[in-house]
Amino acid sequence: MNSLIRNRALLTTVLVGGIAANVATQVLGMSLYISAAFGVIAIASGIALYSDYRRNHKDQRN
C-alpha cells in the first residue's frame, strides 16, 4: 500500500510540474515545441494517474 501512495504522489507531482512548466513556457514566449513537450508530459501523467486510480478503485470495491 505504501508504494501505491508513493506512485500516486509521484504522478501528481509530475502532473503539476508539467502543467506549471507548460504555462511558464507559454507566458515567457518560449518555443512552441518546448511547451508542447511539457504538455505531453502533463497529459501522459494525468492519464497514468487516472488509470492507476481506476485500477485500484476497482480492486477495493470487490
Give a verbal description of the structure.
By secondary structure, the chain is an all-alpha fold. It contains 2 helices and no strands. The chain has helices spanning 2-27, 32-61. The mean pLDDT is 89.
Oligomeric state of the chains in view: single chain
The radius of gyration is: 14 Å
Number of helices: 2
- Number of beta-strand segments: 0
Low-confidence segments, given as residue ranges, are none
User: What is the strand content?
Assistant: under 5%
Straight-line distance between termini: 16 Å
Number of structural domains: 1
Q: Please, what is the average pLDDT?
A: 89
Please trace the helix and strand order, writing H or E for each element: HH
Percent helix range: over 70%
Shape: elongated
Could you write a compact summary of the structure shown?
By secondary structure, this protein is mainly alpha-helical.
What are the SSEs and their pairings?
Layout: H1 2-27, H2 32-61
Helix pairs in contact: 1-2
Keywords:
mainly alpha
